[in-house]
C-alpha cells in the first residue's frame, strides 16, 4: 500500500493538473461545438427529408389520379371501339343488302329493257 501511495504522489507531483484541466475543458468545448454542428445538420436533413416525403406523397397522389384517368379513358375508348365495330358491321350488312337489292333492280331493269326492245322491234317490224 505504501508503494501505491508513493506512486500516486509521484504522479501528482509530476502532472500539472491545472494545465490538464484547461486542456480537458477546451477538448470538451470543442466536442460540444462539433455535437451542435452535427445536430444542426441532422435537423436540416430531417426537415429536408420531411419536405421530400411530402413531395413524394404529392407525386403519388398525382400518379394515382393519372392512373385512374387513364383507366377511365381506356374503358371509354374500348366502349366506343366496340360501338364503332358494331356500327361498322351493321353498315357492312346494310351495304351488302343494298348491293343485292340493286342487283335485283338491275336485273329487273335489264329484263324490262329487253322487253321494251322486243316491243319496239315488234312495233317497227309490224309497220
Structure description:
By secondary structure, the protein is mainly α. It contains two helices and no strands. It has helices spanning 2-14, 17-126. The longest helix is centred in the middle third of the chain and has 110 residues, at 17-126. The model has no long low-confidence stretch (mean pLDDT 88).
Fill in the keyword field for this structure:
mainly alpha; rod-shaped
Layout of helices and strands, plus pairs?
Layout: H1 2-14, H2 17-126
Number of helices: 2
Q: Give the strand content.
A: under 5%
- Distance N terminus to C terminus? 169 Å
Overall outline: rod-shaped
Low-pLDDT regions: none
- Biggest sheet details: none
Order of helices and strands: HH
Please state the average pLDDT score: 88
What is the strand tally?
A: 0
Estimate the helix proportion, in percent: over 70%
Short description:
With 127 residues, this protein is mostly helical. The protein contains two helices and no strands.
